[in-house]
Amino acid sequence: MFPLRFFQNRPFFVLGVVFLAWLILPIFAKRFLRISFFELQAPVDLSVSYVRDLQDYWSLRTRSANALIAAGRDLARLNASYETALQQNVTLRREVERLESLLKIPSFPEHRSEVARIARREFNGWWQHMTIRKGRNFGLVVNAPVIFTGGVVGRVVRVGLYTSDVELIGSPGFRLSASLEGDARQLSYQGSENPSFGAARGIVEFVPLDVTAGGTGAAKRVVTSGLGGVFPAGLVIGELGRLESSGDGLFKTGEVKLDPRLSEIGEVTVLVPVRTDGL
Amino acid sequence: MRRTLALFFTSYLLWALVSQINHEISGWRVSLFFGGLFVVFPALRLKRNEGLLVAFASGLLFDVNAPIWFGCHALLFSAAYLFVFHFRSRVPREESLIGAVIALLANLGIFLGISFGAFRDLPVNANIWPRLLTDLLISQVFLASIAPWFLALQARALEIAGVDLRAEHRGMR
């Protein structure tokens, strides 16, 4: 018979049993639970997101016709400048393809753009994630880059049937190969802790000693380097802030100021890789 | 099973509410965490296995989107649940004030547990503590204000599900 003390502490014995049971639970069971609960959350995220969009629509309906005409006119000017940039882009792409075939070098990875609305943001002290309103139903894949008009947003870390999770570049666990705009030397970017009521920021490491920040000129921009082929090169990550020498004195470590719009964007673009090498 | 489902439904509602509040306040780099509120009512009022299932399932709602090892929240919720369950005979279980105080303490314990779990899996350092403490302080203030409402909601959900806890407790005495 068990002693009385065992019955008095039975809840802790049960706790130990629960821990053990979870440790030995098969991986497929844990995966099934994870997928099930992920899809259980999706209806809430999607429905609230659609209600929010409806709210925005009805608030826009209250605007005067003149305000809407002015906004439409400004957008038309913006679209015209984008059309010009698109035409230049097509010309440059043709030139790149011609040079690739001439020099027999491999092509840059191609991407298909999927625009997705943001359903939910989760910016706590431990991580920063967003849920977007597209998933496997639109061909999204894990590790796909996510961008917006201001540059990099993050990468897709989990794909469900109708929704996907995106890890933000400000999240402490996010790492990316980077470089300074106009400089080919490789840096390492990592998300950093984001103080309450403060601006989002990251850390850049392995900055060469001859690089300086601040001064009278415009702040240097940190961009993706394209190393690894996941993120296309040249996408803006943020602006280089203050620099200080690293512990070993061989490089500098710096702070990166991220775009403040990251915490209020409503729509992002997911770059879904398109395989063109026949594999 | 009816009680488990009824209470899990209220947990799901609270999770949805808190996640939307966190969405709206994300621009201020502040977030709320109400983990303690998910375990206190089952721990104080239900039988052990029923409440444990509710606490574990509530933890899995948080585990899905967390980039730390899957099951961390569920096990921490279960640990908090069993700890409260062990000591519940020593407190007036039906008092809202007691429930709120226990929810605050459980929330503190779970929050610290997740922080250490995050430190294990994520590349963070001590500079993260001011942010975490700010979130914890704000969360505790809001939790203290909504705890009585949520405990009453869960009791009402059980009544709608046809469970009369008061009668059962009288019968058990």
Overall description:
The complex is a heterodimer of chains A (279) and B (173). With 279 residues, chain A is α+β, with helices and mostly antiparallel strands. Chain A has 2 domains: 41-107, no CATH class; 109-279, Rod shape-determining protein MreC, domain 2 (Thrombin, subunit H, Beta Barrel), CATH 2.40.10. Chain A has 4 helices and 12 strands, in the order ααααββββββββββββ. Chain A has helices spanning 4-8, 10-24, 27-61, 65-103; strands spanning 110-123, 128-132, 145-148, 151-159, 164-168, 175-180, 187-191, 201-207, 221-224, 236-245, 252-258, 267-274. In chain A, the strands form 2 sheets. Chain A has a 6-stranded antiparallel β-barrel with strand order 1-2-5-4-3-12. Chain A has a 6-stranded antiparallel beta barrel with strand order 6-7-8-11-10-9. The longest helix of chain A has 39 residues, at 65-103. The termini of chain A are far apart. In chain A, 30% of the residues are buried. With 173 residues, chain B is an all-alpha fold. Chain B has one domain. Helix content of chain B is 76%, strand content 0%. Chain B has helices spanning 2-24, 35-45, 48-63, 72-87, 96-121, 129-160, 165-172. In chain B, α1 (2-24) runs antiparallel to α6 and α3 packs antiparallel against α4. Chain B is globular. The mean pLDDT of chain B is 89. Classes of the chains: A alpha+beta (279), B mainly alpha (173). At the A-B interface, α2, α3 and β1 of A face α1, α3, α4, α5 and α6 of B.
